[in-house]
Amino acid sequence: MTALLAVTLERLNTLTWIILFTFVGGVLSALVASLFLLLNERARARSLPYLVAFATGALLGAALLGLLPEAVEHSPGQDVSGVGLSLLGGIALFFILEKLVLWRHCHEDHCEQHTPGHGARDRASATMMLVGEGVHNALDGVLIAAAFMTDIQLGIVAGLAVMTHEIPAEVGNFAVLLHGGMSRRQALLSNVGTSFTSILGGLIGYFALSQAMTALPYALGVSAASLLYVAVADLIPGMHRRVDLRASIWQVLLMAAGVGVIATLRHLFPH
Questions:
Q1: Domain definitions of the chain by residue range
Q2: Which of 31, 37, 56, 241 has the fewest Cβ atoms surrounding its Cβ within 10 A?
Q3: Nearest-CA neighbor of 166 among 127, 136, 129, 204?
Q4: Which residues of the chain have pLDDT under 50?
Q5: Spatial contact of 15 and 206, defined as CB atoms under 8 Å apart
Q6: 22 and 158 Cβ atoms separated by less than 8 Å
Q7: Taking a C-beta distance cutoff of 8 angstroms, is the pair 151, 129 a contact?
Q8: H-assigned helices in 23-79
Q9: Residue 2 CB-density burial (10 A; 0-12 exposed, 13-18 middle, 19+ buried)
C-alpha cells in the first residue's frame, strides 16, 4: 500500500510539473509577448531580432545538450541508431507540417502577401495562423511531457527553452493577427486562448507515454527534432537577412547566451 502511494505521489508530482511548464511554455509566454502590444510598431520590430537570436541559442542548447543525450542514455543498450532514426523522422514530420502551413510562424519581419484580394487573404492568414499555433502548442506540450517523464531537470530545461522560443514567436503572431484586421483585444484573447492547447498536449503526452515507456527515448528524439527544426529552418534563415557587422555580432553573442542559459540550468539541476 505504501509503495503504491509513493508511486501515485511520484506520478502526480510529474503530472503537476508537466501542467505547470506547459502553462509556462504556452499561456504565460503568450501573456509576456502581449506586453509588446503596448509598444509601437517600430519598437516591436527593433526588439524582435534580439529575442529571436537568444531563442535560437536556447533551442539548440536544449536539443543538443539536453534532449538528445538523455534520449541516448535512456534508450535500450544506448541505441544511438534508434534515436538517430527518431530524430530524422521528427525532422521529416515537421517539414511536412510546415509544408501544410500548420507549422509556420511569422518569425520574419513580414509575411508574404499576394496583391489580389489582399484584405481577405490577410484575414485567412490570421485564421490559419491560429490553427497552426494550436497544433504547434499541442506538440510543444507533448515535448515537455516527454522531457519531464525522463527527469525533472530535463523537463525544466525543455520547458524554459520552449518559452524562450515562444515569446518572439507570439510577438510575430500578434503582428499577423493585427494585420488580419483584429483589434488588440481580439488578438490577445485569440492568441492566449489558442495557447491553452499546450496543456492539452502535455496531458495527452503524459498518459500516452505512461502506457508505452519504451517509446520515451524516441519521443525525446522527436522532441529534439522539433527544437532543431525551428531553430535551423525557421529562425536562422531570418537572422541571415541581417548582414551588417554590428547585428551579426549581437546575434552570435545572444545565441551564445541562449546556449549558456541552458548549460547553466543543466548544471544547477543535476540528476
A1: 12-108+117-268
A2: 241
A3: 136
A4: 5, 9, 102-103, 105-118, 121
A5: yes
A6: no
A7: no
A8: 29-34, 41-61, 68-74
A9: exposed
User: In this structure, are residues 139 and 21 in contact, taking their beta carbons and an 8 Å threshold?
Assistant: no
Candidates 11, 63, 10, 73; CA nearest to 217 is 73
pLDDT, position 223: 83
**Cβ neighbourhood burial of 41 (10 Å; 0-12, 13-18, 19+):** exposed
Virtual torsion, Cα 189, 223, 219, 259, nearest 10 deg: -130
Residue 209 corresponds to which cell in the numbers above?
507515454
Rounded to whole angstroms, how far apart are CA atoms 210 and 113? 44
CB of 229 within 8 A of CB of 88? no
Q: What is the per-residue pLDDT for 40?
A: 75
Q: What is the pLDDT of residue 12?
A: 59
DSSP output for 190-205: HHHHHHTHHHHHHHHH
Grid cell digits, residue 197: 492547447
pLDDT at residue 166, rounded to an integer: 81
- What is the model's pLDDT at position 106? 45
* Cβ 202 vs Cβ 144: under 8 Å: yes
Q: What whole-number distance in Å separates Cα of residue 207 and Cα of residue 203? A: 6
Contacts of 19 (CB under 8 A, 6+ apart): 199, 202, 203
Start-end of H helices in the chain: 2-22, 29-34, 41-61, 68-74, 80-99, 118-150, 152-179, 184-195, 197-210, 216-229, 236-239, 245-268
pTM of the model: 0.70
What's residue 150's pLDDT?
A: 87
The pLDDT value given to residue 77? 76
With beta carbons less than 8 A apart as the criterion, state whether 50 and 254 touch.
yes
The answer to whether 194 touches 127, Cβ cutoff 8 Å, is no
